[in-house]
Design a protein that fits this description.
Oligomer: single chain
Radius of gyration: 24 Å
Structural class: mainly alpha
CATH topology of the largest domain: MetI-like fold
Strand content: under 5%
Largest sheet: none
Helix content: over 70%
CATH architecture of the largest domain: Orthogonal Bundle
CATH class of the largest domain: Mainly Alpha
Distance between the termini: 6 Å
Length: 321
């Protein structure tokens, strides 16, 4: 993996990001609804509406608006929020840590537990544990995250009281230090587990299928014939090759994970980008909508690049030039 390859990959991503900016701008501005009416209310007079459109530059042709927006993006300026009256960067920056905490926790849990479960059941395929995990994985992948979140909220939070109902912290307490970390972790546990359920199911099935395929190959049999223990042969020889498609899926699911986070944040009132995005959709806050979409697109591009880097780390046979 050379710096030249990384720079070339980033250069290849530029047309994709440019296309995303164009499509996002077109979809947001051509969608039904008037942001001025949503912001000023339906009882305003035409003079006030005209003043607001001139203030936000919405009275100009779409081509002129896009040219201004694209130029601002190139200078790292995403504009000013119609609703908040502040730069979009600062509005997103306030919500981004909460969403990153939720997404990264769900991704780490689903990846670690999914790979471990897949490896455990692959050692004894066809057994009771294998059947149980396979059925649970199918159910977890099929159940919508929004519905699973509501069920978990009603049963595990409201029914048993084991988890907080909503929010990121306890509003009635003023915790600091370790107590604050524990409070956030307590609120994080249930939404992160719900968000991780679908990813966990997919990674478990992929790891199991990949290991079963690799364990039947000659190089693993040769290692076993030399006296390598079954567990060591799986972890040292078969698992690195079986993980390549798993890593592909993990890197490609970043965008899907964000869409799931939007729904989960709505159910659990998690103060992240999901709540901000839904609020921006209701109020037709164009700059915030386009800023969030652009951020997600860049995250997917970076995730794909990181996936390639991990490829070369896991499999020494892979070299990028």
């Amino acid at each position: 993996m050379t710096p030249r390859y990384i720079l070339r990959r980033l250069a290849q991503a530029l047309p994709t990001v440019a296309g995303i900016i164009v499509v996002t701008f077109a979809l947001v501005h051509l969608a039904p609804g008037d942001p001025i009416v949503a912001l000023a209310g339906e009882s305003g007079d035409e003079a006030h509406y005209r003043f607001m459109r001139e203030k936000f530059g919405l009275d100009r042709p779409l081509a002129a608006q896009f040219t201004t927006y694209a130029g601002n993006v190139l200078s790292a300026d995403l504009g000013t929020s119609f609703v908040h009256g502040r730069p979009v960067f600062s509005v997103i920056a306030e919500r981004l840590p909460a969403t990153l905490l939720l997404m990264v926790t769900a991704l780490v849990v689903s990846s670690a537990v999914g790979i471990a479960l897949g490896a455990v059941v692959a050692r004894r395929p066809g057994g009771a544990l294998d059947l149980g995990v396979t059925v649970a994985a199918l159910v977890g992948y099929a159940v919508p995250a929004f519905w699973l979140g509501q069920v978990a909220l009603l049963t595990l939070a409201f029914g048993t009281g084991w988890f907080p109902l909503q929010g990121m912290t306890d509003a009635r307490a003023s915790n600091t230090g370790v107590e604050a970390v524990v409070d956030v972790a307590h609120h994080l546990a249930l939404p992160a587990l719900v968000l991780a359920a679908s990813e966990l199911a997919m990674i478990t099935r992929l790891t199991r299928a990949g290991l079963l395929q690799e364990l039947g190959k000659d190089y693993v049999r040769f290692a076993r014939a030399k006296g390598v223990a079954p567990g060591r042969a799986m972890v040292r020889h078969a698992l690195p090759n079986a993980l390549l498609p798993v890593i592909t899926v993990i890197g490609a699911r970043v965008g899907f994970l964000f869409s799931g986070a939007v729904l989960i944040e709505t159910v659990f009132a998690w103060p992240g980008l999901g709540q901000l995005l839904l609020s921006a959709v209701r109020t037709r806050d164009y700059p915030v909508l386009m800023g969030v979409f652009l951020l997600v697109s860049l995250a997917v591009v970076v995730a794909n690049l990181v996936t390639d880097l991990i490829y070369a780390r896991i499999d020494p046979r892979i070299r990028y030039r």
